[in-house]
Amino acid sequence: MSFDRETPVFQLAFPPPRQRYRPVLLPVWVHQVTAPTGYSRTLDVFQTVVLRLCAAGVRDLGDLSRLIGLDTALCRTVIARLVEGQLMEYGFKLTEAGRRTVVEGEVAETEPRLVRVFQDPTTGALLPRILVADPVRADLRAYRGRWVTIQFGTAGASREVSALTLRASGSSMRPSERDVLAACRSHDLAVRGLRGASRDSDNDVVAARRIGFHGTANPAYLVCYVVEGEDGSGRMWTVEDPFAVGDGRLFADLLAARTEGDEPLGRLIDELLGKVRRDRTATARKVDRELAEDARVDVVRLLGEEIRDHPEVFNHLADIELALVKDTARERENVVRNAIRVFECILPGLNEQFPAQLPTSRVPGVCERAFVLIAQRLGATSVPPDMRRNCAKPAKGMFGDIVRAVWAAGENEHHPIATFIRQRPTLLNELDRSRILRNNATHGPTGAPASDELDHIRTLAYEAARHLLGLSGGRSTTSKRGN
Questions:
Q1: Rounded distance between C-alpha atoms, residue 339 and residue 321, angstroms
Q2: Phi, psi (rounded to 5 degrees) for 349
Q3: Alpha helix positions (H), 217-262
Q4: Helix or strand holding residue 468 (H, E)
Q5: pLDDT less than 50: residues of the chain
Q6: For position 246, what pLDDT does the model report?
Q7: Per residue in 94-122, pLDDT tens?
């Protein structure tokens, strides 16, 4: 098998609205496997609204776009993700799982099913994404050497754009079961808005046995969109996630590694940015690489070499250090997001290790009072109202995970969260405050926290890593601004 003009081109996301972009075709080997996808999550706000509107009888894309106030291309992407998750069928009809999700508010855990995983031909590494639904092929019009013409839109509102086909080198290799499992979990992290590699667990050996390969790998191209925009790496361009579920930093890194040896790709980016801006990008990226390495050194200095055994947490803490150095409004918001993600990375594994016995009483107020009593006995000064209200049936996500951890700590004095609360009695309120700051940063009109709050949040993230991961190395965390 090889990559040629007969190789299928998959268009899994739509062009980004209101941004200048250049399409490129990324070569991949596509493996079909049966795997546990890890789909068990709360839907994002757009998926929830689209699902509910379709459940109420909306059957027209234009009506959806008008009711939500969302571009039709983005509505199509939302629908594609719901179809991929088997919550909807094409034609705006809900599946049984979709109807159940409307009632219950979250997607139920699925059994292993047939999915596609994607392998980079150059490195042999799997992309951290999967595809459950059948891929949508791009509407191709013409080939001219390495350039292909793609038609976007529908009849009467279509336009043609030229896309550069990237070179493919290397033959397909069968990935390991653990690599497939990691791709599934990384995809699930991206769907839930989390960044980083998937976390290994004690159940990986069992889960890997449930993975089966079907046939041989097939070549394909993915439509990617190079856009203007700083993504935190020092580049003044980035790549939209071609799967439309997360950020495209990894895909931008793949393209960046090719720019020096691929003259047409370099010219494409030059045309998007202009040569002066591209030169500035190269300089900024070199400085940012050095700052990023210094940030990782700082994390190890504070927590010891053991933190390298927890790459997700390590990455988020390093991102906090880098954001504090850059100190823009956007980076201040990133400090809060990454601090919350530290907890989101650690707590699920902690709750697997120390499963909570949730109360069964249906008497109004009894569960809430019992939860408050446990928290106070652990040393908490107070319990936020939202934790009280949701303690009987904690939702998915960080807030629900901390509630489960408190229930479990009430039965086990050696639980890491018990030690953490004893050392930091205001922990529950601080997490509630951080959650509010994170939500403001993501959705609110003003979100950048003040300097003193940034230092406080940074310390909270480091103490979470130290207490909840049981790290003993490094030295005490001090204010970044005081170093």
A1: 11
A2: -65, -35
A3: 249-259
A4: helix 451-468
A5: 40, 197-203, 205, 443-446, 481-483
A6: 78
A7: 888 888 777 766 665 556 778 899 999 88
- Type of residue at 59: R
For the question of whether the overall pTM of this predicted structure is more than 0.85, the answer is no
Please count the residues of the chain: 483
Q: pLDDT tens for residues 221-235?
A: 999 999 887 665 567
List alpha helices for 246-397, DSSP H.
Answer: 249-259, 263-273, 275-303, 311-326, 329-353, 366-378, 385-389
Q: Which two tokens stand for residue 150?
A: 């793609």
pLDDT at 27: 94
Complete DSSP assignment for 120-158: -TTT-PEEEEEE-SPPPBPEEEEEETTEEEEEES-TTS-
Are the beta carbons of 40 and 240 closer than 8 angstroms? no
Q: What pLDDT sits at residue 155? A: 54
> For residues 66 and 69, what is the distance between their CA atoms, to the nearest angstrom?
5
**Residue 359's CB: how many other CB atoms inside 10 A?**
16
Cβ partners under 8 Å of residue 166, min gap 6: 24, 25, 26, 27, 255, 258, 262, 265
pLDDT of residue 154: 57
Find where tokens 């046995």 sit.
209
Look at residue 201 in the predicted model and tell me its pLDDT.
Answer: 45
CB 160 within 8 A of CB 148: no
The Cα 436–Cα 438 span in angstroms is 5
* C-alpha pair distances (Å), 2 with each of 20, 101, 174, 254: 32, 42, 16, 20
Q: What own/partner pairs with CB < 8 Å and gap ≥ 24 does 286-289 have?
A: 286/234, 287/234, 288/232, 288/233, 288/234, 288/322, 289/234
pLDDT of residue 473: 66
| 361-399 as b/e: b if 16+ CB within 10 A | eeeeeebbebbbebbeebbbeebbeebbebbbebeebbb
Residue 226: phi and psi, rounded to 5, are -85, 125
Distance between CA atoms of 228 and 26, rounded to whole angstroms? Answer: 18
Report the alpha-carbon distance of residue 431 to residue 339 in Å, rounded. 10
CA distance 433 to 186: 28
CA distance linking residue 253 with residue 350, whole number of Å? 32
Q: Half-sphere exposure of residue 189, counting CA atoms within 13 Å on the CB side?
A: 21
